[in-house]
Design a protein that fits this description.
By secondary structure, the protein is of the alpha/beta class. The chain folds into 2 domains: 168 residues, Aspartate Aminotransferase, domain 1; 249 residues, Type I PLP-dependent aspartate aminotransferase-like (Major domain) (Aspartate Aminotransferase, domain 2, 3-Layer(aba) Sandwich). The strands form 3 sheets. The chain has a 7-stranded mixed beta sheet, sandwiched between helices. Helix 2 runs antiparallel to helix 11 and helix 12 packs parallel to helix 15. The longest helix is centred in the C-terminal third of the chain and has 23 residues. The two termini are 13 Å apart. The structure holds ligand KE4. The site of ligand KE4 has 21 residues, from helix 4 and helix 5. Ligand KE4 binds next to helix 4 and helix 5.
Amino acid sequence: MTGSIQKSESLYQRALKNIPGGVNSPVRAFKSVGGTPVFMKSAKGAYLYDADGNQYIDYISSWGPMILGHCHEEVVSAIQRKANESISFGAPTELEISMADLITDMAPGIDMVRLVNSGTEACMSAVRLARAFTGRNKILKFEGCYHGHADAFLVKAGSGVATLNIQAVPGVTAGVAMDTLTLPYNDLAAVKELLKNHPEDIAAIIIEPVAGNMGCILPEPGFIEGLRSLCTEYGIVYIFDEVMTGFRLAKGGAQEYLNVEADLVTYGKVIGGGMPIGAFGGKKAIMEHIAPLGNVYQAGTLSGNPIAVIAGYTTLSILNNNPSVYTDLENRCKALKAGLENALTEKGITHTVNQAGSMISVHFGAHKVMDLQTASQCDIAFFNRFFHHMLKQGIYLPPSAYESWFLNHALSNADIDKTIEAIHKL
Ligand code: KE4
């Protein structure tokens, strides 16, 4: 059991004075689950320590990046060494070549890659590139998928937009929204119908190949493959948003995990090892339109920043050289799934657990959760109570029913057992 969070409470009151909602990203504010957001002070391995000294088993892993666990010795010392040499140049470096080579080596079908500073930047740049490459304006995204906060993506988006139930984000103009078409995730028939009516209007289909922003939602058999065939048939750029799944589901991300190759892929989170990095990459025939090679302008003051890149490069290198990390993570996640299902069943709580690799989510309802609608039909109020019960037990879950949990490699079997025990105390 955790103790007082008095320091978090006073920090939150101070934060509200100069920061909108007291946080620098909405999902951290506990808005949907209620209560005071816990202010964290340090982290090591699988554990977080809050401002009051309470310890938590971490299932957020900074929303994915901390796949190796917090403050991994090799990553920390690489950052420290690099910081003694440089912080930022704004000039090309050899390290960026090594990073590009490593990403193209680990991920299938990536001929060229451009580093940016966030997943949002990666996704917005990939869409601009697809529009330039095809000469078309419209994009198709899926309800409940979240591709960052660029205007084009804030149409029926997941993550914090779904959590806060924002139907239409103010500031996104009708002109922008009209070029973003949306359909339910997993509805291949609806996509086929749409393309029949818009055979030459759509520049890109952008998708989370395993979705993590309405909880963890798996593609139905044939869905991702079906989109691949349709994109090829209609000359549409197929964009995998792998900001969450990239280098997490497998060394080659969802492309490897699902055995489907996209035309462009976006990355974030894990590739920065906890530092701010995004990236987009793909077929040379498309990527060579990016400035200064081509005319599709995309830029960034801190893109390829040495400190961020060394954190990401060290993280990816460890993953590349130790592929058993992925089997460990998947096995531990499967054990967690089984433990959650057994414990919730014993408590007589109707639920469904979705899991892919080291991504997992619990939904309170008897039905299959396979898109935003079925995720929204679950008992969100019960999830909120569940969240606070687990938090009190020292288990730190994403503070929203519309988020995936992320396991890190520092989690032990004892941590998983403690998580399951906490359910029995519900
Ligand atoms: P960032 O701009 O936050 O680095 O990445 C945007 C993004 C793009 N694509 C996918 C599939 C994503 O999940 C994200 C960001 N994920 C959220 C969590 N659902 C980040 C957490 C937050 O917004 O604070």
